[in-house]
Every structure is written in structure tokens, then in C-alpha cells.
Automatic annotation (TrEMBL):
PANTHER family: TYPE-4 URACIL-DNA GLYCOSYLASE, TYPE-5 URACIL-DNA GLYCOSYLASE. The lineage of its organism: Bacteria, Pseudomonadati, Pseudomonadota, Alphaproteobacteria, Rhodospirillales. It comes from Azospirillum melinis. InterPro entries: DNA_repair_put (IPR023875), DUF4130 (IPR025404), UDG_Type-4/5 (IPR051536), Ura-DNA_glyco_family4 (IPR005273), Uracil-DNA_glycosylase-like (IPR005122), Uracil-DNA_glycosylase-like_sf (IPR036895). Belongs to the uracil-DNA glycosylase (UDG) superfamily. Type 4 (UDGa) family. This is Type-4 uracil-DNA glycosylase.
Length: 486
């Protein structure tokens, strides 16, 4: 009998090392006992004691075991489960794969496969619950004065399984700009905006139940999205079990919202007859067309005075550049920086565009720069305003302005940056990466290429560098089209 001892919790690395050694030795799963931490031997004698001879130690340099990708993904998931038999079940699965059953996961009725699938489902559900029901509370830590005056966020959660490390990438990506700590009975995480630290199990800290602006925000958001016409307490408890309510600030509002649902539904029915019709982009365009501006300056005055179709924008961001410019460059919509300054392409994407134009031999001041949508559309995330792509209806609403604008500028070539700008000019969905290059836009010759923000989202490396070189080559090619036509 061979005894394999792993760390408590989800010891994926330890399991992989042990598995490689067991497979190299051809160990029978029935002759292996798995345990975590300092758990005693199932036979009452700890490894290394007693008179029974010990098996040879596992080889430390055993080669990796080649497994189908779905099997590897299943192992990563099931290792996070609390079931003490999980390692033995996975060892048995791997042995069958090594012996030739590489499509074993396709046999859903197989008892081993069925049991592992249930463990995998439980872990994935636990991950979903932690993603959905973990709530941060703001605390002040004077010791961290460099972090926005000691601003820090702490959350407490009680997962069913050992999933804390598996959730780390989700929370780092979602709350990258904050300093936060997640505490659970099975482990902890700390993020300082630069690096992630995995820590030991923790106890629920005192003071997390007090009200703060984060809790108030969650409650207001929940109340604003609650639909009284579709209230179903049974379904609510199934999706949001009561065990999570103690950590959810919005849970305090649930009883009152359920009690008031019938009255709210009746009020909605009575108000429906008097509700104003939704704004129709076609009618808005027709109303604009009746104004018929005679100059670009007059058109800009109309744009400034118009209500934004997307609420929240500070101001309309107008085009910039000379009338009669040989090249007009059309982006998607203003970003946060553009909305504040009131000028197009002044944020990070605009700075990248300026650099690429210079390398392509195009003077930025000699080109006309504008956007298909004139107002910044965003969703608020704390103090940040995150870009939201405009809908096809919103692009249609602003298209009249764009066409009039280009009519006054009279460029010889229109370069569209990204799919939204190409949609506005062509009137159809355009796959930029497949159709990049020359394209006719009615009265104008056009050229389709990527938006600089796409390049900023690419991970650093040779792929991003090549994408930037391709973007510069597109702009250089567009410049050549203008010179040839001129």
C-alpha cells in the first residue's frame, strides 16, 4: 500500500507531481491512499513508522502525463472540491486514459465519469456564486497612506469548496485598480494593484456589517433593477440561497420589495397609458434634416445644442481639422478624456493614433478627425467611467450629422477606425480584420482599418508589435491612395 500526502485544500501542483510518479511506476489506484496535510494513515500507522516495509519513494523526475485537454480541465476543477476521495477518483480516471480510453469523458453513463461530472458541476456552481455574491466593504487603513488615503476594500465569503485561488483571476481583472482583500474560511487573497498574495484561512472580521457607500450603492442598484412583475420568491431563494444573505447589503431590501411588489405592479399598469413613447431615431433624424445647416460651423452649433442620445456625456465632441482635408479619419465615439476636453482623439488611443500617423507620413493637423457618435457612452464603475459600444440604433441616430459633416469637409478619402465607424459609413456590419483595406462609402472613397484602442487591448509582445506595424502600413497605404488620386 502506498500513501501519498498532499497539502490541505486544492493542491493541484502536488497532485500533478504525485500523479506523474505513480503513472511512471504503473501504480494500481487500489493500492494508493491519498490524504491532505498531516492526516494520519488510514491503517493507523503513519508513513515512515512501524515494521511494515515502505514502498519505494515516487520518482521526482517523472515525465508529464499527456492527457486530452478536457481531462486536464476536469482535473483542475475537481481538485478544488471538498470530497476526500477526489484525488483517488482522478488517479483512477487518468489510469484509464493512459491505458487507451482517451474518449472516456464522452461516456456519460460510466459511474466514474458521472461522479466526477457531479463534483465538477458543484465546483463550477460554487465559483459562480462567489463571483456573483461576494461584496466588498470599504475600510480605511492609515498605514497605507499611498493608496488613496488608505482606501481599501475587504470582503468575507464562505465557499463550499477550495475555490479561493481559482477565483483570483476574476477579481484581479474586475477590480484591478483597487486595493482589496478577500477573506474566507479556506484561504485568503490580497491585491495591492501590483501583485496578488495568497494567504491562509481567516475568521470573519468584525465591523463588515456597517453601512458604507459601497453597500448603499449595491442596495440602490438592486432596488433599481428589481422587477416587481416577475417576483418569484422560490426562484430567488434557489438562485440566491439564504446562506449568502448575511454578506449581501442588498438582502436587507428584499422583504420590503416583495411586500411592495403588488402595489408597484398596479402603479406600473396605471402609468403605462400615460408613458411617453421611446425616442425614435428615424424621427430624430427627420427633425434634424429640416434644419439644413449651410456651413460646418452651423452644423456644429446644432450638434452642441442637441440632447445626447446616450445620457451622462459632458458635451458633444466635434470634429477637428481643416475643411478640404484630403483625408478624414472617423473613429467610433469619444472616450473619457475626449468627453472632458471636448476634442477628438486626445486620450491613450488618440496618442497612439498620432504616433502612427507620424510614422505613416500623415500630418495630424492636415487631416480631419471626427467620430461616428458624438457623445461618450459609458457605464459607471465606482469613480471610473468605462466605455460602452454604441448600438446600431445609436449609430443611425448620429449618422445624419456625420454625413453632413463629411459633406462640408469634402475629403478625397475617408479612413474608418473600427467596426462602428465602418457601419456608420457603409450602412452594414463590417468585419474589420477580414475586410480591412479599400472600401467604397457612397460618395467617398474609403479605407477600413482597426481602431487604436484595439491595439491597446492586445497583450504586450510580438503579436501586439506586429499589429501596430500593420496599422501603420494601413495608414501609409491610405496616404498613397490620396497621393495617387491627387
Amino acid at each position: 500500500m502506498r500513501h501519498v500526502e498532499l497539502k490541505d485544500g486544492a493542491d493541484l501542483d502536488g497532485f500533478r507531481r504525485a500523479l506523474r510518479g505513480l503513472v511512471a511506476l504503473g501504480a494500481d489506484p487500489d493500492g494508493v491512499v491519498w490524504s491532505g496535510g498531516a492526516a494520519p494513515s488510514l491503517f493507523g500507522t503513519a508513513p515512515g513508522t512501524g515494521t511494515a516495509p515502505l514502498p519505494a519513494p515516487l520518482p521526482v523526475d517523472a515525465p508529464p502525463v499527456p492527457l486530452p485537454r478536457p481531462v486536464g480541465a476536469l482535473i483542475e476543477s475537481v481538485v478544488c472540491h471538498r470530497d476526500p476521495e477526489r484525488y483517488g477518483l482522478l488517479h483512477r480516471l487518468v489510469c484509464r486514459v493512459v491505458r487507451g480510453e482517451r474518449d472516456i469523458l464522452d461516456h456519460h453513463a460510466d459511474p466514474l465519469v458521472h461522479r466526477l461530472a457531479l463534483l465538477d458541476k458543484a465546483v463550477r456552481r460554487d465559483l459562480h456564486k462567489m463571483h456573483a455574491f461576494l461584496r466588498f466593504r470599504e475600510v480605511r487603513d492609515p498605514a497605507n497612506s499611498e493608496d488613496r488615503g488608505g482606501e481599501r476594500y475587504v470582503a468575507w465569503f464562505e465557499p463550499d469548496n477550495f475555490i479561493v485561488e481559482a477565483t483570483a483571476p476574476f477579481f484581479v481583472e474586475r477590480f484591478e485598480s483597487l486595493v482589496w482583500t478577500i477573506l474566507t474560511p479556506v484561504g485568503s487573497l490580497h491585491w495591492d494593484r501590483r501583485s496578488l498574495t495568497v494567504g491562509p484561512a481567516a475568521l470573519r472580521p468584525e465591523g463588515l456589517d456597517r453601512d458604507d457607500r459601497f453597500a448603499e450603492g449595491w442596495q440602490r442598484y438592486y432596488e433599481s433593477t428589481f422587477n416587481p412583475a416577475r417576483v418569484n420568491p422560490t426562484a430567488m431563494r434557489a438562485e440566491m440561497p439564504r446562506k449568502y444573505w448575511a454578506n449581501l447589503p442588498e438582502a436587507a431590501a428584499i422583504p420590503g420589495m416583495i411586500r411592495g411588489a403588488p402595489a408597484r405592479v398596479q402603479a406600473m399598469i396605471e402609468a403605462e397609458a400615460a408613458a411617453p413613447r421611446r425616442r425614435n431615431p428615424d424621427k430624430a433624424v427627420a427633425a434634424m434634416a429640416r434644419q439644413e445647416p449651410a456651413t460646418l460651423a452651423e452644423l456644429n452649433r446644432i450638434i452642441r445644442a442637441a440632447d445626447p442620445l446616450v445620457p451622462g456625456a459632458t458635451q458633444a465632441v466635434l470634429g477637428e481639422g481643416p475643411e478640404g482635408a484630403a483625408i478624414a479619419i472617423v473613429g467610433e465615439q469619444p472616450g473619457d478624456h475626449e468627453d472632458v476636453e471636448g476634442r477628438p482623439f486626445v486620450g491613450p488611443a488618440g496618442q497612439l493614433l498620432s504616433r502612427a500617423l507620424e510614422e505613416a507620413g500623415i500630418e495630424r493637423d492636415a487631416a480631419y478627425l471626427t467620430n461616428a457618435v458624438k457623445h461618450f457612452k459609458f457605464v459607471a464603475r465606482g469613480k471610473r467611467r468605462l466605455h460602452q459600444s454604441p448600438t446600431a440604433g445609436e449609430v443611425k441616430h448620429y449618422r445624419w450629422w456625420l454625413m453632413k459633416e463629411l459633406g462640408f469637409v469634402r475629403p478625397r478619402l475617408v479612413v474608418t477606425l473600427g467596426a462602428t465607424a465602418a457601419l456608420a459609413l457603409s450602412g452594414r456590419s463590417v468585419s474589420v480584420l477580414r475586410e480591412r483595406g479599400p472600401m467604397g462609402f457612397g460618395d467617398w472613397e474609403g479605407f477600413v482599418t482597426v481602431h487604436p484602442s484595439y491595439l491597446l487591448r492586445l497583450p504586450a509582445g510580438e503579436g501586439a508589435e506586429q499589429a501596430y506595424r500593420d496599422f501603420v502600413a494601413d495608414l501609409r497605404r491610405a496616404r498613397g491612395m490620396v497621393e495617387w488620386a491627387g
